[in-house]
Specification:
- This protein is an all-alpha fold.
- It has a single domain, classed as Ribonuclease III domain (Ribonuclease iii, N-terminal Endonuclease Domain, Chain A), CATH 1.10.1520.10.
- 66% of the residues lie in helices and 0% in strands.
- The chain contains 9 helices and no strands.
- The longest helix has 22 residues.
- The protein starts with a helix and ends in a 9-residue tail after the last helix.
Length: 194
């Protein structure tokens, strides 16, 4: 587990004061020899939601509440967080005793890889449901950071969001703005400009 903790700290570019928090964040409930990430996942879900809400509220003062909600939801959905876990290879560090999870994660990861290799630039459309464990890992790791920085939301934002989650935030924002523009022009489709 020590190697996994070090690897995830490297991904985050953050050294935990309390390494046990990260160990717990990387432990599935099927692994009964240690506390699981479930409590941290609960906290991480709320902390990421609030951190992102603060950001979009301050960064986009001209968006109406509906647009802000769309932007937040698009960035903290199970699908989006699962993609973050895949991008950073977090699943390989999770302790678990549920082999069936491996197959689900591999299937989703392969679908995302095929999408990345696709020349037409289409975004994954959800034909393979994102395994919840992937989003859970991101939320629990974020919560581990949040607790480790003494529940400082601004520090969580700097450690977790900027390097870890932001890789496709702009793409989601551009897509939502395009959807809003399309609706305003009464077109019957969503245009994606690359």
């Amino acid at each position: 587990m020590e190697a996994s903790v070090f690897a995830v700290e490297t991904i985050l570019n953050y050294n935990f004061k309390n390494k046990r928090l990260l160990e717990e964040a990387l432990t599935h409930s099927s692994y009964t020899d240690s506390a699981s990430y479930q409590r941290l996942e609960f906290l991480g879900d709320a902390a990421l939601g609030l951190a992102l809400s603060n950001y979009v509220y301050l960064a986009y003062p001209k968006l109406d509440p509906g647009q802000l909600s769309l932007l937040r939801a698009a960035n903290i959905s199970t699908e989006k967080l699962a993609r973050v876990a895949i991008k950073h290879g977090l699943y390989r560090f999770v302790r678990h005793n549920a082999i069936v999870l491996d197959d689900k994660v591999k299937e989703f990861s392969d679908a995302v890889s095929r999408e990345d290799d696709d020349d037409d630039g289409l975004v994954y459309g959800g034909s393979i449901k994102a395994p919840k464990i992937l989003a859970d890992i991101v939320e629990s790791v974020a919560a581990a950071v949040y607790v480790d920085v003494d529940f400082d939301l601004q520090k969580l934002w700097v450690v977790s969001f900027l390097p870890f989650l932001s890789f496709s935030f702009c793409l989601i924002y551009c897509c939502i703005i395009n959807i809003v523009l399309v609706k305003k022009k009464r077109y019957l489709g969503v245009f994606w400009s690359q």
